[in-house]
Amino acid sequence: MAPSNFPGQTSASNGELLELASNVMSGGALGFLMLPRSEDVVIREGRGSHLISVEGREYIDYLMGSGPMLVGHCHPRILEAVEHQIRQGTTFYFLNEPAIRLAEEVIEAVPCAEQVRYVTTGSDATFLSLRAARAFTGRPKILKFEGGWHGTGDFAMFGTVPGEASDYPHADPDSLGVPGVLADEVLVAPYNDTEFALQVIEEYADELAGIIIEPLQRVLRPVPGFLESVREACDRHGIVMIYDEIVTGFRLAWGGAQEAYGVVPDMACYGKAMAGGFPLAVIAGRRDIMELYGNVGRAPNTIAWASGTFNGNPVAATAALAAMDVLRDPGVYDQLHRIGGRLRAGIEDAGHRHGIPVQALGEDMVFGVRFMENANPTQWIDLLDNDREMGTQFAIECVKRGILIVPNEKFYISIAHSEDDVDRTLEIVDEALGACKAKAG
Q1: pLDDT per position as a tens digit, 47-93
Q2: What is the pTM of this model?
Q3: What is the CA radius of gyration of the chain?
Q4: Nearest Cα to Cα of residue 187 among 230, 123, 222
Q5: Which residues pair with 53 in a beta bridge?
Q6: 207-223 per-residue burial string, b: 16 or more CB within 10 A, e: under 16
């Protein structure tokens, strides 16, 4: 095993590194989005829409870092900007111009934004946005929607991945270690059920601080009138409406889901695509709410604490400024629609040819392939009819042939994906579905 000139890079094989990961890393992985071990892969590098393994195998990448790589891997404009900043310093914990300029850009782009607060992860952003909502209203409870993913904070981990419908408006925690007392403070309703959501809001209005929503919930689009009705109820009762735009921000449109769906919240959380692959997230919102985060010039018990060592890091902020500049290029969102739309339609057509019910659900820029008859699911409970075993087998067959996806998860489209990528992907999808059908008998 000959070492390279850089720490952490050797000539170890894929199998050797996977075995080592199993011994030294909890779960043998970085998180929960992973392939079956027999097909798992250790990545050496990324270029545009492709990833290359430590053994030199190339894949068309549709995980795209679980969403951050909207502009593609190693975009030259981002690399140039970051390399310049790194030579000036990597972190200061003081105000720096990239962070200030990025805040200005976010406020210009995001309809609800009058001020921003930097954090490092999406989980930070959602957790601290709920803190601000409680501080602003003086109320204890939040409402979320079943199946909505808002990171791993304790308040988020209720009714996120239930195997059956929750006992609305109450839900079980999704994780060990979540204090049971929080179950009374987190209300859960089925997504897109406008009538039930309004009933819960009316019943608990005097206790509700905030309502947090993924406007595109996983792969479920909002039905007409749902977001509008929640917005009106929040206005009526002084409840803070929060969009979790970690996935949708700068992806569905320049102004995110707020622009795409036409309903503006009071606060919104951003991350993933906006920073070009660097760890950065942002809470944006109305000035009167955002000012509750305050600063150390105020008494500690008069602010909603929100601070972190790497918040507003100049390297990440520089990367975000460069990524946003790329996303301003003419035709970017038209291209994302075109590439993603063609891919979605082609996957569903392939399913029809093979007699397999396949739905490509969501939006053109981010969608999920589900093996189910229902072409228009509206709630988490509808998605439980998905044949997950078929989804796992499909992913394995795709990975074998050179597409990198995770079973039963999203396809993320980037501006680096080309028509040639789509051509090859649809060939592989056709082969993979054929293999799945043959194995199913």
Answers
A1: 999 999 999 999 999 999 999 999 999 999 999 999 999 999 999 99
A2: 0.95
A3: 22
A4: 230
A5: 43
A6: ebbbbbbbbbbbbbbbe
